[in-house]
Amino acid sequence: DGGITQSPKYLFRKEGQNVTLSCEQNLNHDAMYWYRQDPGQGLRLIYYSQIVNDFQKGDIAEGYSVSREKKESFPLTVTSAQKNPTAFYLCASSVNRAGANVLTFGAGSRLTVL
Amino acid sequence: AQSVTQLDSQVPVFEEAPVELRCNYSSSVSVYLFWYVQYPNQGLQLLLKYLSGSTLVKGINGFEAEFNKSQTSFHLRKPSVHISDTAEYFCAVSDGGGSQGNLIFGKGTKLSVKP
Predict the structure, then answer these.
(1) Is there a contact between A103 and A94 (Cβ–Cβ < 8 Å)?
(2) Which of A33, A100, A105 faces B97 most closely, judged by CB atoms?
(3) Using CA atoms, how far apart are residues B79 and B60, in angstroms rounded to an integer?
(4) Does B73 contact A at CB distance below 8 Å?
(5) What is the Cα–Cα distance from A46 to B22, expressed in whole angstroms?
(6) d(Cα A77, Cα A97) in Å, to the nearest integer?
(7) Across the interface, which of A42, A58, A110 has its CB nearest the CB of B108?
(8) Contacts for A41 with CB less than 8 Å, ≥ 6 apart
(9) Cβ atoms within 10 Å of B88's Cβ, excluding its own
(10) Out of B98, B101, B105, whose CB is closest to A43?
(11) What residues contact residue A84 under an 8 Å CB cut-off, 6+ apart?
(12) Which of B83, B93, B89 is nearest to B110 (CA)?
């Protein structure tokens, strides 16, 4: 079955460490996204990529970095510059339907900073 | 810029009762609307979407929503809920596709179905 795989599901980090969250899709979607979810805050866009080797900052990109070297993969690095990294991170990809981006989500990765 | 308001952060309801989760968006010439459901510690699953055509949209699990352009609303309804419908529901809106059509999400409504 086609879908989006995020790993790891749970991750613990010490302050000052960088961590990388993996996101792989086999849906053949061109666009991919990273969202951050905090309780009561909804989803906030970190980065998105419309095509390989290109990506744009979302609303809360500070302290994060991404790469898009392959169509299937869009890893997110949470750097030590992110002041409050404990959150649930969701990766998504999209297909265009009747002019709209229709998103499919992965199961998420929960990052906890100790 | 688009914005989405989910008017209720929590909705408790008894099993087999009807439910309505409210969503309002800021006005736009054209808009695409979505409802997603999230079960604990999982990703979001698409319930239904309005892209064009009929204003009454039917989705999975017996849910439906009605696009009301004059009231800029897209409320989600189910005539009879089950315990398994307990989850968080997110309304989302976009103005189009491509980089101009990124989804804007509401803050979510937690539906709690009690026996």
Answers:
(1) yes
(2) A100
(3) 13
(4) no
(5) 26
(6) 30
(7) A42
(8) B107
(9) 22
(10) B105
(11) none
(12) B89
Q: What is the pLDDT of residues A52-89, one digit of tens each?
A: 999 999 999 999 999 999 999 999 999 988 889 999 99
Residue of B nearest to A33 (CA): B102
**Cα distance between residue A38 and residue A23, in whole Å:** 19
A104/B46 touch (CB, cutoff 8 Å), yes or no: yes
CA separation for the pair A80, A20 (Å, rounded): 11
Mean pLDDT value of segment A11-24 = 93
> Two tokens at A88?
């649930």
B12-44 per-position pLDDT tens digit: 999 999 999 999 998 766 789 999 999 988 999
Per DSSP, what are the bridge partners of residue B92? B34, B105
Mean pLDDT of chain A: 92
Identify the bridge partners of residue B95 per DSSP, sorted by sequence position: none
Q: With an 8 Å Cβ cutoff, are A58 and B98 in contact?
A: no
Within 8 A by CB and 6+ apart from A38, the residues are A44, A87, A88
Residue B60 touches chain A, beta carbons under 8 Å? no
With an 8 Å Cβ cutoff, are A50 and B99 in contact?
A: yes
pLDDT of A10 > 60? The answer is: yes
Q: Which residues from chain B sit within 8 angstroms of residue A41, using beta carbons?
A: 107
